[in-house]
TrEMBL record:
Annotated protein name in UniProt: Lipoprotein
Signal peptide start and end residues: 1-25
Compartments, as annotated in UniProt: Membrane
Keywords: Lipoprotein, Membrane, Palmitate, Signal
Lipid attachment points (S-diacylglycerol cysteine): C19
Short name of one Pfam family: Lipoprotein_9
Amino acid sequence: MKKKLLVSLLAVAILLVGCSKNEPAKEENTANTGEPVAEASENKIVIGVSPTPHGEIIENLLPKFEEAGLEVEIVNYDDYVQPNLQLDAGDLDANYFQHGPYLETFNKENNLDLVSIGSVHIEPMGVYSKDANSIDEIAEGSDVIIPNDAANGGRALLLLEKEGLIKLKDSTNILSTEQDIVENPKNITIVPMDAQNIPNVYEDAGAAVINSNFAIGAGLNPTKDTIALEAGDSPYTNVVAVRAEDKDLEKFKTFMEIVQSEETEKFIEEKYEGAVIAAFDN
């Protein structure tokens, strides 16, 4: 099992040679790291998103934005780093791909001043396994893959603890790491990995904890394919972020009124069927 996982990890590493994980997806509307995507405008918003579900949610609202006099341009990214760096650099006006704890951690680690202007949805994180049909069936000594960033790694460990697979030193610490595991009855090995790559190799491990946006993008259904799923009251709500000095701009107030609307809630309910949950009151 470990040899098979190692081969899979090496294959992913080879695929990434010459294409940094921190580069946005190569799509028609994807930002380059050179010139800004667009010039600033009172009514234009260039927003960086993960394609699923964030980009799909925003794309569904494009007619509403246009009716409100906003010009919204969507830029897709396949990682969790560049959307914040390019927002800080001014290449983006806003981004929508991350949950609040990740934004807070990223700000501290990179000395940025990005702020949330509102919550949109929750993506319950799930545990996936090719061989086990429940947490109890995960074999002793298995590799269990989790995201390697601090916020999502800690989130994954808290989920594994809640399901009884491990015990942590402090169950309230959202930034727990594998060094904080104090009980490990099945002697599992935690394997941290870039979150976007986990769906490609999870079948070679005993289990893996996958963010729902990457799971959905890989054709997995969080409500049907998981052996454990976060509860809907998770504090990890996905937010729209902007530079702190821009948070009170009128265009963002209008933008969020449309995003946090009944139409968005209905779209999320119908398209994702519980795999994504609206996290606002309208």
